[in-house]
Amino acid sequence: MFKKSNMFIKLYCILLLYSDFCDARLIDQSKQDDEGKIIDLLSSINFNNMENIKSESRRSYGNDGDDYDDSSQWKGRWFPGDSKMTMGVHENCDDGKTNLQVDWDNSPENYTCFERAIEPNDSEEKIYCEYIPKLYYDAHLCMNETIEYDDLIPVYGNHRPVWPVYGEYKFIPRERWLHSIEHGAVVMLYHPCAHPKLIDQLKSLVKNCLRRYIITPYNLVDVDRPFVLVTRGCRMEMTQIVPEIVEAFIRVTGLHGPEDIPEDGGFDEGLIEKAPPRFDESVSTLCSKS
Hints:
Mean pLDDT is 79; it is low at 17-35 and 41-70. The protein is an alpha/beta fold. The protein contains six helices and seven strands; from the N terminus they run H-H-H-E-E-H-E-H-E-E-E-H-E. A seven-stranded mixed beta sheet has the order 1-6-5-3-4-2-7. It has one domain. A hairpin with a 2-residue loop joins strand 5 and strand 6 (234-238). Residues 1-24 form the signal peptide.
């Protein structure tokens, strides 16, 4: 119980302030009535509303906000170059069918387990969030060039113009699912050797929370935390599946991409199961029990 409650506190701190001035010591754990109260608090946060974050910063530091600059909190290392390519199918750029080997060579090692199943351990959940300025944009790059990333599991970045059909995949490369999180999707990554029962448990939670999801094995996931949820600007790595924590993370960070596009894209290579329709999907209905 202590571990779970402590994780909610860290999740609240990191996602509420989205910066370095949040300190878990500011919250007295003994004053928390129960986990449900923390979940309600998390659910009320408008995660990507930078005005909320700026006002929180002003209250914390006594800044009247007149000289506040969004870019001052930018921790990234680069901005993409000019890109005139719009999203969607372009015959001479990306049609979602041609030159797919540029992103993935169809190697089975990306989705196949060659070792024993990974057993859960005592590692705590690990959350990473990065501030993304409003003026930042992801470039759409054609299939005649490779895309390099600084992180094994990026939380934003350049990607292909054609975004995926929402659903579960045999394998789908990050060049595609990064476009999905730009549209507000939640991406579930799992190591191919992760415990099958835990894989199914997390799949069920994600599928019940929203329609805009991508599920795929990913052999670059840390074996100590073989499950990862990725949303725009954030990722959470896990070894065990705690439903309350998973749902709280999705409710806070899901459907908050800069482009609110619920429609499926034109990429479906490796699609196992398409996400079923959900006509009432919104931030307020994420992980709804009804």
